[in-house]
Amino acid sequence: MNELVARDARAFFHQHGSSPCLGALRRAEGIWLEDTEGQRFIDLHGNTVHHLGHGNRELIAALKRQLDELAFAPRRFTNEPAVLLAEALLARWPGAPAKVLFATGGSDAIEIALKLARVATGRQDTISLEGSYHGHGFGAFGLSQAEPDPRLGDFLPGRHHVAPYWLEGGPERMLANMARVFARSPGIAAVIAEPMRSNCRVPPPGLWAQVRRLCDAHGALLIFDEIPSGLGKTGRFFAFEHFGAVPDAVVLGKSLGGGMVPIAAVIADARLNVAPELELGHYTHEKNPLTTRAALTTLEIIARDGLVERARDVGARLVAGVAEIAERVQAVVGARGLGLLLAVQFAPRCDAERVVEACFSEGLSTTTKGANAIGLSLPLTVTDAEADEVLARLEVVGRRF
Fold it and tell me: Is 149 exposed, middle or buried, given 0-12, 13-18 or 19+ CB atoms closer than 10 A?
């Protein structure tokens, strides 16, 4: 075992998906990861933070300048990067006038959105999709699973889970389940969901518009979690722009910090600004000038370089390329998703864990996206040549099965 990995395993609590680690990195740049043994991998996962690619030099320079100018601001004081970031996000919002709050991570931002829903509606219950993922706080994680591990104890009460749209017959079951919950539970404050689950299953047309109508009919809010899917990843700035339904609030995170610093945001209808006496998002680094500078610079680069459109176009190139591979390689079925939030589907006989292992041996770092699928998530800055290199390596992997 790599010595650094061994030291990591001795120092950190062990938990699924992170410790013990697979390896140790010494460099990350663009689409590439390089470990301490000198092996290089194309990053098809990136924890969905690498919209700008790893180690974006322009962002690093902006952070260095900000460190020299103003590195921290107590939350009772504002600062220019924080205000500019808020204004930039609000300028992209397609709904009614809105306001923002910042947090240090997506899970915290989800909890802010829940607090807003509670104080605005006077209710406490939620509806979410079984098998979703909204973070690891006791409020956020409880939204993801109806029955988390019993060793963790009780989560927030009033959680109603419905069938997710991505299972067979799911859209119809989901809507029927929601209608039943609304009918028997008058205390629903909000429906919270990822507009497109990060398993890259695309919802059918009209689904979220119907959910929007249900929420409106019952006086509940609609909250979209775009922590993995927002900021252009799907070929639209907000993923919900694909689906004909504007939420009352959206949560952004992960890539908002440019893959370098942790920051998340809640953008919500200004009509929810009804509890100024409460501390709904009281975080030490709420308006940190360094994290907000990172996010502001990320937005500027996305807009200036047309990266939302780039995600749409390269995503189409990858989907077409995988389809061509599927014609030659029986193990490969095709690609699903939107923009650059994609998954490659393999034949039922191909276990996803084994496919991931084969990908690593071909210099592709990825993760499972279901029983027979793997992630194909690249930065918005990926070049055509790099996309073609990924396709070539995927074909080699497919031929092993």
Answer: exposed
What residues form DSSP beta bridges with 335? 344
If you write DSSP's letter for every residue of 223-270 in order, what string do you get? EEE-TTTTTTTTSSSSGGGGTT---SEEEE-GGGGTTTS--EEEEEEG
- 162-179: string of b/e by CB count within 10 Å (b at 16+)? bbbbbeeebbeebbebbe
Give me 300's structure tokens. 């500027």
Residue 169, CA atoms < 13 Å, CB-side half-sphere: 3
- Residue 99, pLDDT > 70, answer yes
Residue 233 tokens, joined: 């990843």
* Rounded Cα gap, residues 159 and 309, in angstroms: 37
Provide the 10 A C-beta neighbour count for residue 68. 8
Residues 220 and 99: their CA atoms lie apart, in Å, by 19
Rg (CA), the chain: 21
Upstream peptide bond of 195 is cis (omega within 30 degrees of 0): no
**Domain ranges across the chain:** 3-56+306-398, 70-304
Per the prediction, the chain carries an average pLDDT of 96
C-alpha count within 13 angstroms, C-beta hemisphere, residue 58: 15
Class of domain 70-304: alpha beta
In words, the CATH class of domain 3-56+306-398 is alpha beta
What integer pLDDT is reported at residue 322 of this predicted model?
Answer: 98
What span, in angstroms and rounded, lies between the C-alpha atoms of 244 and 261?
32
User: Around Cβ 273, how many Cβ atoms within 10 Å?
Assistant: 15
Distance CA 4, CA 55 (A): 22
The per-residue pLDDT for 164 is: 96
pTM summary value: 0.96
